[in-house]
Amino acid sequence: MDPSVAIALGLLLCMSCLLLILSWRKGFGRGKLPPGPVPLPILGNMLQVDLKNIPQSFRKLGKHYGPVFTLQLGVERVVVLYGYKAVKEALIDHGDKFAERPPMPLSKAFSNGVGIIASNGETWKQIRRFSLMTLRNFGMGKRSIEERVQEVAKNLMEELKKTKGLPCDPTFILGCAPCNVICSIIFQKCFEYKDQKFLYLMKILNENVKITSSPWIKVYNSFPSLVLSPGSHHKAVKNMQSIIEFILEEVKEHQRTLDPSNPRDFIDCFLMKMEQEKQQPQSEFIIDNLVRTVSDLFAAGTETTSTTLRYGLLLLLKYPEIEGKLHEEIDRVIGRNRSPCMEDRNKMPYTNAVIHEIQRYVDLVPTSVPHAVSEDVQFRQYLIPKGTTIIPLLSSVLYDDEGFPNPYQFDPGHFLDESGNFKKSDYFMPFSTGKRICAGESLARMELFLFFTTILQNFTLKSPIDSKDIDITPIANGTIRVPPSYELCFLPS
Fold first, then answer.
1. At 268, which CATH number?
2. Which residues cross the membrane (predicted)?
């Protein structure tokens, strides 16, 4: 072995040992942690977790150790919450104590501790409050958010018509629509589908979803000392830097053209808030926070919705009888002569149930975005030390058989009562729950309803292969469950 390689490996081993010792000392003598498998030196419980299917591994461990269990993943101690009752008790009943974010290496590289997803304390509280208020009140422009989504949906239909009913991979087209919605809100612009900058942004966003859902990223986050080693985390960080540079260009243009009497979008509103607080030395409203918040909204608002749309259409190809019932309800309630609107949703229980079931079954973010406890927490009969990473296993809630009988079966009946009316479920948590529930939940719900209904109002879906041969197994089960690649035909109705 090359001496330099041997030295590097030796240093890596020593650093890992030191970090592991520090990690264990952090919680030593501070109470009883939840049960879990005995960890190995350095690796902890990494060998007991299938990094290609973490949710499945956690399900097996949850059934063995109970609804609250501890794992040592490299240098990172993790407490996993399994099942509806444990997740609700932690994130809702003890929401304030479970609302922190842990210092994960890749997350730190992406956000630098600011923005809306990975920040903590006063930064998170103020930025989240401002973002929610701005998104909620976005009647400030010439058009409401619903009108923006409807316009993007019409453009999407024009692009789908260009496929002329021939087999196509819908990944790019379905990604562009939600991306243009969020761009409309943040930048007050929609991109042409052939815009080269837009094409590049869509490419690197899609690339980062695959990278962050890969087994390597779990290894990297569990062993921060690997930061200098070769790996896909470098590509993910480079991609994120490209997005940051694009946003910075937009911010500079907004600064140059800002009219305080007529705010055009999210960036304008943030710049105005910066001006209001420029005399406050501790203000959270600074350029870095603006750029990272826009980056969070841009990435999260694009990939989660587009992946759900793509997975949803695949499920409808697999179960064409469900698509047929959707067409019947759309024809009866909306017809063919006007665009769908949000008022239609209350009159369309079956469509509403199918969209909810798609989100439940897809289980898009199975392990949620990790939480951390802000102080030593007495939880049930255990004491969880301050700073411990918490993983609320959303899979275990969305697939809880107490809330959803036959959870592994795709069945819109999970959200319908005996009379065929839509019924809500407390177990429906695709956006997580509690203090850290997704800030864009209402927008995502709107987009999913308007995009699905508009597509099915205009097209019949057809698979080039028999529905029985369609594989709906995800190709990645990490941060996001990524559906397999497939082709379909959009046949004009």
1. 1.10.630.10
2. 6-24
